[in-house]
């Protein structure tokens, strides 16, 4: 911590990677099991409605996160160019906070929602035979709704 020894980057990357993978387990299980569960329990029509709702709302949310993250990043650059008082002002300090939130929004959170939507859609497609097997001939699922 005194700056006399070189940083141990390998250990830092190892800790971050293990933490990321550990935190990814539950969302991965949810994104795979929920489409299968909806299809088996409520049928093909409900699965189609679920996926349509997920895709519509997820796409809007992903675009919002990507665009707002980019806007916060560009706002900081604009302020640093001398607008609204430039560097060192309270506005600049606030823009740094916005940029700190904005970078993960535009670089990781927004694009990862698109990946979630693809996983849910592909899971539904891959398990469609199982969903139809457990549903009634009309595809209404196990529950009589």
TrEMBL record:
Keyword terms: Ion transport, Magnesium, Membrane, Translocase, Transmembrane, Transmembrane helix, Transport
Segments passing through the bilayer: 24-42, 48-67, 116-135
Tagged with keyword Lipid metabolism: no
Subcellular location as annotated: Endomembrane system
Gene Ontology CC entries for this record: endomembrane system; membrane
MF (Gene Ontology): diphosphate hydrolysis-driven proton transmembrane transporter activity; inorganic diphosphate phosphatase activity
Pfam family, one: H_PPase
Keyword Transport carried by entry: yes
Membrane topology, as annotated: Multi-pass membrane protein
Listed name of the protein: Sodium-translocating pyrophosphatase
